[in-house]
Structures are given as structure tokens and as C-alpha cells.
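Our consortium's second objective concerns turning raw sequence data into structural hypotheses that experimental partners can test. To show how far this objective has progressed, the report includes one record in full. It was chosen at random from the queue rather than selected for favorable results. The single chain below, 295 residues long, was entered without modification.
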Amino acid sequence: RGLVGSEMCIRDRSDTGCNTYPDAVDVDVDLGQAPIGSGRIAEVFAIDDRRVVKLLRPEWPLHFLDREAAAARAAHAAGVRTPDVLGTTVVDGRPGIVFERIAARSMIEAAIDDLDRALELADRLGDLQAATLRTTTPGLENVKQLLHRHIRQAELPAIVQATAAAVLDALPDGDNTLHFDLHPGNVLVGDDGLTLIDWSNGSSGHPAADLARTRLLMTASAAGAVIDLDDQATRFVIEFAARHEARCHRQLDVSETDVDAWRLPVVAARVHEVSGDERAALQAEATRLARVHAP
């Protein structure tokens, strides 16, 4: 208790010092309740009808919290439809970010509940991504730095890593706002529109990088690498992804060639984030693309 309006010191697992947070807030959260959202890095718990808290899983270092909070604040300030950051906190030793709570459900749930209108959601997703990419957040880490780091950490042959890094170096820079994890699971659908959540990969850079990442995430789902789908569901995901992409591309000065140019570094970096069959599939694809780019 006693955090409101004061500074909070959070000690990182890998650091003998601590990080100081002047925006600390005190929250009362029952971790015995089921989380309202869950991912690889964190879990989201309801605080009340106005706030949620996103708590890091114990095995993840503190810099993931800092990175997402900075990206979410920058995106919100740039005019992107995303929950406001209300502060930082610690619950049972787990650091977290307190966000504004949005009365909405995920786009995946909305699409499943009304399949007849699901392709309208694909159009709206395209509009949201295009609108986000038209904003700028020059203070955020450049996406090329993020990709270089993940390529170095990926379980890939050295020649594939080197080729992916060389291709990445030759790609254009920019200061547009990139969510870099944009897919229906990270979009909330409410009565007042769409809201983009989960800014753990938020970066600045060229719009084509964000489009290449979204294409990879969508096609991985269609291929069954993320969830098991029957043939009808697979066809629907492919149609949804194509509809979204066409809608988004029409609003941006980005060509298919521009997006394709980012595929190798985006695929190689993604290897670092996944496991099992999905990792094996991406390792094979990265190796194939590296051969294409080889001199």
C-alpha cells in the first residue's frame, strides 16, 4: 500500500538494482480469479469496471514491462485507438501495467458469433491498421533494431541469420507507428469501434514491416500452425486475411513488392518467439528464403 502518487522501485530478476516508477498506483487484485486475457508473456486481470492490470509472468524480465508501457503511451498520444496507460504496479511480486478497461470483446469472438458479418470485420481491421500506420511515433525503438535482436536470438543456421540481417539492413526506415503484432486476437470490438491492445512489440518504422508481420501471423493461423482448423475454417481465415490486406493496402502507398521484401527478416525473427511445429515450419521457410536471397 501507499504507492499512489509516490515512486515505486521494482527489482528485476537479472539486475541487482531496481527500476523506479513515478507513476505507481496501488491496486487490489484477486489473482485467484480467472484472467480475462492470457499470453506468452503476461496475464490480464480485472481490477474493477474501469481498470485492468497486465501482469508479467514470473519468468519474464522487467524490460518487457517498460517496453510495452512506453509503446502503448506513445501510440495513445499519437491518436491510435488503444487503452490509456494509467500507471504501473506490483501484485504479489509481479510487476504490471494498469490500463483503462474497454467494454468490448475480441474480434475473434465477434467474428465467430456472427459469421455472416465477419468479412465486414476484416474491412474494419484493414481500416484500423491503415489508420495506425498513418501516425508517427519517432521516439520508439525502430523495428529494424527489434528484428535484428530477434534474428540473433533465433535458433537458425548462422548463414540464414547473416542473410536475414543483410536483407534487413537494406530495407527502408521510417517513423510510422507499428503495432507489429496486429491480428484479430489483439483487437477489441465495442459499440464505439475497434481498439488495439497488446503493444509488447510496438515500434516505429516502415509500414511494409507491419504488413509483412500481420500477413505472417494470419497465414500461420490459416496453415494450422497456431490453432487446429478444419478445411472450412481454413478457407475462411484465408479469405478474411485477403480481405483485410486488400482493404489496408488501398489506403497506403505500399505495394506487394514492398511487403514481400520484409518476409525473410520477419520470418527469421519470428522463429525466436515460437516453439514446436510452428518453429520447425518457420525455420524451414527462413532457410528457403535465405537461399533465394543468396548471391
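The partners drew two points from this record. The chain has ten helices and twelve strands. Residues 1-6, 222-227 have pLDDT under 50 and may be disordered. Both points have been shared with the crystallography group to help prioritize constructs.
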